[in-house]
Amino acid sequence: MHGEGLNRAQFLTSAAAIGVAGATGALAAGGRAEAATTTDGPTVRSGGARTGLRYRGVCYEVADGETPHTGWNAVRMREDMRVIKEDLHASSVSVFGDGISRLKATSSEAAERGLHVWLQPRLADVPQADILDHLAETGRHAESLRRQGARVHLSVGCEFVLFVPGIVPGETALERIKNLTEGNYDPQKMMRRLRSFIARAAAVGRSVFRGRMTYGAAQDDDVDWDLFDIVSVNYYANFRSKADHVRELMKYVRKGKPVVVSEFGTCTYKGAPEQGGMGWDVVDYDKPEPEIVGALVRSERTQATYLCDLLDVFESMNLYAALTYNFVTPDAPHRIKPRYDLDMASYSIVKPVWRTHEKPTSGWHWEPKEAFHALARHFARARC
After folding, report:
1. Beta partners for 283?
2. What tens digit of pLDDT does each residue of 233-243 get?
3. What pTM was estimated for this model as a whole?
4. Residue 322's closest CA among 111, 118, 83?
5. Which of 241, 248, 257, 339 is the most exposed place for a label (fewest CB within 10 A)?
């Protein structure tokens, strides 16, 4: 693992390596700019009632890559933010990951381009005190952006059971996942420790940030939402009908606070939506070169359809925001041979293309998938 933390791609890769199917499923008023914004809000009926989502956007990870060329890069980031704003027509972006300098630079760039920002630190596998210090520094930057007039919300973290030591046994995420899947933990102690750490994180966030605040919960997390202004859920459910999605999401709406779907998405092959949040678990990382398991059929249409169907659900429920996971995963390249097309196991809406088969060079680039174009059309229509 990189010294500064564990990024989402590394977590998923490592989880697949030890076979943890299902692990991730087991478990104040806004600032002045918030009140003033009118350009990217929802449609409003003549009677003044809000219809549809207020914010529509995408998640953007800032973290070290698996090679020097796939890690965070300021030049690439600035161009990505331009694309998210101008080509994807998003009104919002979730900037998440570790490394204060990366979080600051990316959120500042997004804000300068007029995007609403969700800022979420995800430092993992270090002492809890270090995670809270990292949160405090991130929150201070969020407050600085807010005071300058940016539209920004702070999320104090994501799925702490997996990423924070001391809630379940295990010094690393891999050890904690293994203990979860093998039942080597006390569920009652886990829940008490989770709720305690969420409360500590909320207190740290409140001490440095005066805008609206939330926490990126897994669907089964038991969260005291009285600590937060916004209810936030990472939503990877798969149901046959839109009515079933509405029924599932209503339990969050009933909390009586704005609801954001802080992550939703699926991978890029036929049948991926049926795998829910485990669609990524189709890569054999024990081979000399990682390869796709089974005879999967690449389908960008499947991914695009799933995303648009869910957006229709969120719009119909007038949720506060929805953020597609994820913009780009540089270490999961698209290749012509299906056996090595790691992008099939990626949730990203663009596909990385490496100039060489073995490893990326500085010349790698990404190309939009069908999901990118479908989201862009949806976002553009919603802003009209």
Report:
1. 292
2. 999 999 989 99
3. 0.88
4. 118
5. 241
